[in-house]
Design a protein that fits this description.
The structure holds two protein chains of two kinds. Chain A has five helices and eleven strands. By secondary structure, chain A is an alpha+beta fold. In chain A, strands 1, 2, 3, 4, 5, 6 and 7 form a seven-stranded mixed beta sheet that branches. A four-stranded mixed beta sheet of chain A has the order 8-9-10-11. The longest helix of chain A has 22 residues. Chain A is elongated and about 65 Å long. The relative contact order of chain A is 0.13. The N terminus of chain A is likely disordered. Chain B is of the alpha/beta class. In chain B, the strands form two sheets. An eight-stranded parallel β-barrel of chain B has the order 1-2-3-4-5-6-7-10, surrounded by four helices. In chain B, strands 8-9 form a two-stranded antiparallel ribbon. In chain B, helix 1 links the parallel strand 1 and strand 2. In chain B, helix 6 packs parallel to helix 8. Chain B is globular and about 50 Å long. Classes of the chains: A alpha+beta, B alpha/beta. At the A-B interface, strand 4 and helix 5 of A face helix 1 and helix 4 of B.
Chain lengths: 245, 311
């Protein structure tokens, strides 16, 4: 009897993740034209308008998400580079060949980069439709199979969920609530006094641990670092406010 | 009364206090980018005082005046941005010189290095365009076998500082060698204001000066137009274990993770009317300790929040 040979699944070789990578910050930014990619590769710099800069720009690496403008090479992250310096400059100083551009006098953060490196495997956009800035870590960058894996919120939610279940508390994920542009809470804890909804924010948001009457916002990085400690804080704060699950 | 915390941000782990990469990768501009992010975080959390990392500039650069000047000059615009953000968000900045900066060192090279670092730190703060309340805190140093001589050496060293550096320098008494009385002696000879540290005073007070009297004396060393700052901390009390897992009591000069609110509330309640001052909370949980202390004040001492206009 002839057996069909089992074809091995091809797994692209990924760079081994070093322990330090877990907390090496990476800023993912968008490049939507060939000139800016060339500037990053050949002139070794990238610009972010100060007015539209995210709340966290300082990082050790910059990863570039190329939009659909790059055709077959677009909608993915293929390149990253170490960030060597940050400087402030006007657009006119950065791009003197466009002195009359409407934004010529606007201020930009100029990120001076090291050599542009190629990721072992590009990270496709996948389910992600709109990408601006993502603050992530080098470990996430090397493990990601699609862009949504870079968001720390999902990993943080899983970690907090596991910590809550470990303590035997009643919990639900993606709990629907009627609240503006976040129609569902990341987690909801249930107890005799009611429900406590938890929202996990990416590091670029203004996250805070506040024991409001029934709602708390949490920082994704803080959860990834020590979900148990954050859960202790939540439970201590809510016990005092009389709304403990 | 502003409440502040030193250096490390725990509430958002991705925020670093400075570029911690090894030279030559580490650069002042990267440190300033981290500092920009921290200032935005402080604004989000309504924190109005913050101690900068003493390592904004890599340490090997700090003691080399010419190289430090080049780094600072290269980041002139970025330094100005930090100053603008600090003013915009009303954050009082300060810096504590590293422990290796020793004013009383008898070795002239070590003393010269200490003075160079202080000049560099002053130059950094000047580059940010910060006002005179952005101070550099420094300790006296060691005894080197002759306490009186050490004090005279420190006084002579301070005389060699530039006017710009002297204008920003403040002296802090310590927990074992030079108490408030010694620092008052230095103030009388140099005019350098003093920072009162409650825990240090509790641990080393050879003259038995009451804490409120020591605090008042330190506050009076500051120019009338400036708001003094003090340090508040409570000692660690948790058991520590050695390499063999044997239990030991903690050293009392080790700061607690979170502040003992009752000790500090009692201290603040016992104060007579004094000129306004700001408080640097020295706890190992940093910003988290500050947030917790604010909650404790609201819960147990709302009258202090009102009396001292605590923000």
């Amino acid at each position: 009897m002839e057996l069909n040979p089992i074809q091995p699944r091809y797994e692209p070789r990924r760079r081994p993740v070093h322990p330090a990578d877990e907390w090496t910050p990476v800023l993912v930014a968008v490049v939507n034209n060939a000139r800016d990619l060339r500037l990053a590769r050949e002139a070794h710099w990238y610009r972010i308008p100060v007015r539209h800069a995210p709340r966290q720009i300082a990082a050790e690496y910059l990863a570039l998400y190329q939009t659909g403008a790059f055709g077959d090479e677009g909608r993915r992250i293929s390149y990253y580079a170490p960030i060597l310096r940050y400087h402030l400059a006007t657009r006119r100083q950065l791009l003197p060949e466009e002195p009359d551009h409407p934004h010529a006098e606007e201020s930009y953060f100029k990120l001076e980069l090291g050599e542009l490196l190629t990721l072992p495997a590009p990270i496709p956009a996948g389910r992600q439709t709109r990408i601006t800035f993502i603050y992530t870590t080098l470990a996430h960058l090397f493990r990601a199979r699609e862009v949504s894996d870079l968001w720390l919120r999902e990993a943080a939610r899983q970690k907090l969920y596991a910590a809550v279940r470990e303590r035997g508390l009643a919990v639900e994920c993606w709990y629907p609530v009627a609240m503006g542009n976040r129609p569902e809470a990341d987690l909801a804890l249930f107890g005799p006094d009611g429900r406590l909804t938890l929202y996990i924010d990416e590091p670029t948001g203004a996250a805070a641990v506040d024991a409001g009457p029934d709602e708390i916002h949490l920082d994704a990085l803080a959860l990834l670092r020590d979900a148990e400690a954050v859960l202790d804080q939540i439970l201590t704060a809510t016990r005092r406010s009389g709304n403990s699950p | 009364m502003r409440l502040g915390f030193p250096v490390t941000v725990l509430g958002r782990p991705g925020l670093r206090s400075h570029d911690g990469r090894r030279p030559p990768q580490a650069h002042l501009s990267v440190s300033l980018a981290y500092l920009r992010d921290i200032l935005l975080y402080l604004a989000d959390r309504r924190v109005t005082m913050y101690r900068l990392s003493a390592d904004l500039l890599p340490r090997d650069v700090q003691a080399d005046p010419e190289t430090a000047r080049q780094h600072i000059e290269a980041c002139r615009t970025e330094l100005a941005l930090i100053g603008d953000l600090a003013r915009q968000y009303d954050v009082r900045l300060s810096v504590h010189a590293a422990g290796s900066v020793v004013l009383s060192a008898p070795d002239p090279r070590r003393q010269a290095r200490a003075l160079a670092v202080l000049e560099t730190l002053a130059h950094l703060l000047d580059g940010m365009g910060l006002g005179p309340e952005a101070v550099i805190v420094v300790h006296v140093g060691g005894h080197y076998g002759d306490r009186d001589q050490a004090l005279r050496t420190a006084a002579e060293a301070l005389a060699h500082l530039s006017p710009a550096a002297r204008a920003r320098l403040v002296l802090e008494h310590d927990d074992r060698r030079f108490g408030v009385g010694d620092c008052l002696w230095l103030h009388q000879r140099t005019g350098i204001p003093l920072v009162f540290d409650l825990l240090h005073h509790q641990l080393y007070n050879p003259t038995g000066m009451p804490a409120t009297e020591a605090l008042a004396a330190c506050l009076e060393t500051w120019p009338p137009a400036h708001v003094p700052k003090i340090h508040l901390a409570t000692p660690a009390t948790e058991m520590v274990r050695d390499r063999l897992n044997r239990p030991h009591p903690p050293r009392l000069n080790r700061h607690s993770h979170f502040l003992n609110p009752f000790a500090l509330i009692d201290f603040l309640r016992g104060l007579p009317p004094l000129r306004p001052f700001d408080v640097m909370l020295e706890a190992r949980a940093r910003d988290l300790a500050l947030f917790q202390f604010r909650r404790h004040l609201d819960a147990w001492a709302p009258e202090l929040v009102a009396r001292f206009a605590i923000t």
